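STRUCTURE:
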């Protein structure tokens, strides 16, 4: 019996690859002949080669993305040496838009499935496993033809196929046990109505939705199975109001307190009804990812985004105020008309909204995108290899990009980690703007040779303390205290950094507090089953400015994972 292996090489173990499951599910009549192998880019090429060799497939298909395609190219060179007869097929956005050129440079591959893969894959299975038809007849592929008529294989392109009805796509999670400890990816729509010039989702328009009753049934399944996180891969989830409302109302009504749902949304399009609903949701029920990219009007227009930052700002602030939704905002450096100073403004505008996460990404010039076509006009220099990240533009030098990389690193470590919230807030007034804070911090790391070293968590606190004191010696004690609070908000650490000194609370004061708390539970809720010694171990007590500061790790915030804190 012939064997087909669908191989997914994920970025992390916790990820799963929806595409390969969807392809297999779409070809149920070939059941056991089609297998799935999930690997990660953290495994060595040799490790995966051994696994693929043991599987010994006749047909091997890879799901290619910008972050794994180099890896796959390396791998298939070796695969073809140890399994010379295997037919290798590739699919995914990274190979779809320049299929012929890709095959010319990749002699090990037999062909490429273009765009949406389900129907194309099914027909390929009819060809390989059902022994029906010929490759010539399969739409949506580019392939190396060896029909004997030509002296050597030629690359043939059969053109793209029409998109499929989303209701025909199978639900792939029935055996949910297989996805334990993995993030679940789910799609209720395909396509995007917008035309952002850097994005491949804007190329194939064709927005389609899965029937809402089907979606509700599947969401109920996740809720019942208490799946920790479901990430919707829908490109702009709220582009149709009635669809978004139906999904959000359903999960709000049927929530069992266990599952978090992640959505990519256009925040400016959120309407009053949607925001009112979001405001009533359980904290942590949903999280929102919002692409801002830039707040420079000329840039926004040039990249063909339909976004009003004023509206984004208003809506993000409103959701932020309700305190129940984790918001992740994205910026992209390297866009047209965005120079270093204009990026500073974009950064400050978005930072002012205080999202839970602020991602500073760099433009990737993807083949097939409008940005790619404009690269000469914008004088875009970018990597020749995936992820094709920008190196310089007409508006941004490579030196600027290096500076922004340093700022991105500082933002990740200090802001997105959520480990220094209070200290950052205390530091901000020392600088003309938030961007300058991260700029200076990055310079401090470089000047002191700290950028070349791996730091422990505690060292990061020590470095930030030294940096903060250097900015304003007079606030040394304030910085010290806020860093201690930041430190304990995260963890009940055992070894304190040197600047923190020994805890100032006396054993007697602590004993007295827990004696009373053990009886009254004025602050610590949920500790009723524990004795006072255990309560003391499970919490942390500091004394600051004559007050007790109590950290409760059982009741952490679902938005930022910080302990509850009481000033007593
Ligand atoms: S960036 Fe987002 S909104 Fe723009 S085209 Fe791509 S998916 Fe659509």
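SEQUENCE:
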């Amino acid at each position: 019996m012939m064997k087909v292996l669908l191989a997914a090489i994920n970025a992390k173990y916790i990820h799963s690859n929806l595409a390969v499951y969807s392809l297999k599910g779409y070809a149920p009549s070939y059941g056991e002949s089609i297998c799935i192998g999930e690997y990660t880019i953290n495994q060595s090429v040799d490790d995966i080669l051994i696994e693929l060799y043991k599987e010994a497939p006749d047909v091997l298909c890879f799901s290619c993305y910008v972050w794994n395609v180099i890896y796959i190219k390396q791998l298939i060179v070796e695969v073809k040496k140890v399994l010379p007869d295997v037919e290798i097929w590739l699919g995914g956005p990274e190979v779809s838009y320049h299929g012929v050129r890709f095959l010319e440079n990749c002699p090990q591959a037999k062909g490429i499935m273009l765009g949406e893969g389900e129907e194309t894959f099914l027909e390929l299975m009819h060809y390989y496993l059902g022994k029906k038809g010929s490759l010539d007849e399969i739409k949506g592929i580019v392939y190396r033809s060896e029909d004997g008529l030509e002296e050597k294989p030629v690359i043939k392109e059969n053109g793209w196929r029409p998109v499929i009805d989303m209701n025909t796509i199978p639900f792939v999670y029935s055996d949910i046990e297989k996805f334990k400890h993995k993030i679940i990816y789910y799609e209720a729509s395909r396509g995007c109505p917008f035309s952002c010039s850097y994005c491949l989702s804007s190329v194939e328009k064709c927005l389609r939705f899965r029937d809402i009753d089907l979606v509700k049934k599947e969401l109920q399944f996740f809720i019942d199975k208490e799946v920790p996180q479901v990430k919707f891969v829908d490109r702009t989830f709220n582009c149709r109001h009635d669809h978004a409302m139906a999904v959000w109302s359903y999960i709000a009504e049927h929530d069992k307190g266990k599952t978090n749902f992640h959505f990519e949304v256009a925040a400016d399009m959120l309407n009053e009804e949607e925001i009112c609903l979001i405001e009533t949701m359980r904290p942590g029920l949903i999280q929102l990812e919002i692409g801002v990219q830039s707040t420079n009007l000329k840039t926004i227009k040039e990249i063909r985004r339909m976004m009003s930052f004023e509206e984004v700002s208003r809506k993000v602030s409103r959701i932020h105020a309700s305190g129940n939704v984790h918001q992740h905002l994205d910026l992209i450096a390297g866009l047209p008309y965005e120079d270093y100073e204009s990026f500073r403004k974009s950064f400050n505008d978005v930072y002012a909204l205080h999202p839970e996460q602020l991602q500073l990404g760099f433009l990737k010039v993807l083949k097939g995108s409008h940005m790619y076509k404009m690269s000469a006009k914008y004088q875009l220099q970018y990597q020749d290899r995936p992820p094709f990240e920008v190196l310089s533009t007409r508006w941004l030098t490579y030196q600027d990009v290096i500076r922004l990389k340093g700022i991105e690193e500082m933002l990740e470590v200090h802001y997105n980690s959520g480990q220094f919230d209070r200290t950052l807030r205390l530091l901000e007034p020392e600088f003309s703007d938030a961007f300058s804070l991260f700029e200076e911090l990055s310079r401090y790391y470089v000047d002191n040779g700290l950028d070349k070293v791996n730091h422990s968590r505690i060292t990061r606190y020590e470095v930030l303390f030294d940096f903060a004191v250097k900015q304003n010696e007079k606030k040394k004690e304030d910085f010290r205290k806020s860093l201690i609070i930041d430190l304990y908000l995260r963890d009940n650490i055992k070894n304190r950094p040197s600047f923190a000194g020994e805890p100032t609370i006396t054993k007697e004061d602590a004993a007295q507090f827990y004696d009373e708390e053990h009886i009254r539970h004025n602050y610590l809720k949920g500790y009723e089953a524990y004795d006072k010694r255990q309560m003391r171990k499970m919490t942390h007590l500091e004394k600051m400015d004559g007050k007790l500061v109590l950290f409760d790790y059982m009741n952490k915030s679902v938005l930022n994972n910080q302990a509850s804190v009481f000033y007593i």
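REMARK: Residues 57 and 100 are 25 Å apart (CA to CA).
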